[in-house]
Amino acid sequence: MNKGWEFNHSGIFTKDFNGTIAYYKDLGMAAELPRTGPAWNPEDKIETIEFDVVPDLSVPEGDPFLYLLYIGDLEFEILHAPDKIPYGEMLSYREGVNHFCISVPDIDGETDKLVKKGLRIVQDFHRNGERHEDYLDTRHYGYIFLSFRSPMTEEMKKRKTGAGIVDWKFLGHTAIVQDLDKVVEKYQYWEIADFQPEKVIDTRAMSDVQIYGKPPKAEIKARSRTCQVGDRLMLELVQPVESDFIYRETLYRRGEGIIDITFSVKDLEKEKEMLVSKGVNCIYSGTPEDSGAFAVFDVREKGGDVLIKLVEE
Fold it and tell me: Do 236 and 266 reside in the same domain of the chain?
């Protein structure tokens, strides 16, 4: 485990920027923190390089480029996705969660280590000559960017922890991959994650399995390796094995990448009732032999092409 790595936030790109923000708020799960001052001193020298050029951060109708929401103890960064697939390279070609950010004690040192292992810096943000954030091009193995930031202050940590309006504890993400072994091999080579032994996701080994509220017509089976990145982010990499409606269908529809944001909750039925009452469909649920009951909710249409997974403590 890399010492001093602390989870900072996850980021999602969405085409309906204002609509997505309003949607999460209307569901009663997301809050925002009022800004206490300017993000930086107007006299600061700010430089952002994206794919070797200064990016055009202009967005439709003068909207801000990004917006922060807080779901439980998760800081969720909402960003504009392009309306059409652009020419050239961009941080996002589609909607969905495509990166997570880790605060590290020595951002230059950690970045240099990964550059020496063959990773490219695709976005680099400097203030007054000092690097404060960057994105490393890990997307070729699971379509996920790894972002580094400078350390958080204790005040930042306290504000993030206490900002949520639902009693949900962020656990991490599930990501669909085509070749599990290849992705695991790369993550281990980069030394960015500690992996648990492989497991098999098989609905035949679960109880109370429901697909869209009914017993499944076809079973779900997939290979899975869970890893920990930093102090608390759990990333489950899943390779579909048998045809199914959630893992393989997602891989075919949009390719590799993160498909959910996962939280632990104290009372799953209570949270399920709350979401269903707001019009959110529960599309997949069950109780594995070795963990608590879970339920997966479909907010893809209005929430930026992502699912919400709740797991009972």
Answer: yes
Q: What is the pLDDT of residues 18-47, one digit of tens each?
A: 999 999 999 999 998 876 555 667 788 878
Q: Which residues contact 109 (CB under 8 A, 6 or more apart)?
A: none
> H/E element holding 238?
strand 233-240
Looking up tokens 């709740």 gives 310
Same domain, 117 and 213: no
Nearest to 293 by CA among 281, 311, 309: 311
Residue 78 falls within a domain, yes or no? yes
Please give the helix or strand (H or E) that residue 160 lies within, else none: helix 154-161
Q: Give the burial class of 199: count Cβ atoms within 10 A of its Cβ; 0-12 exposed, 13-18 middle, 19 or more buried.
A: middle
Does residue 211 lie in a domain region? yes
Range of 55's domain? 6-161
Examine the fold and report which residue of 133, 161, 189 is the final residue of a domain before the chain moves on.
161
Q: Is 285 exposed, middle or buried (0-12, 13-18, 19+ CB in 10 A)?
A: buried
pTM over 0.85: yes
AA letter at 72: G
Amino acid at 275: L
Closest of 107, 127, 225, 230 to residue 177, by C-alpha: 225
Q: Residue 210 corresponds to which amino acid? A: Q
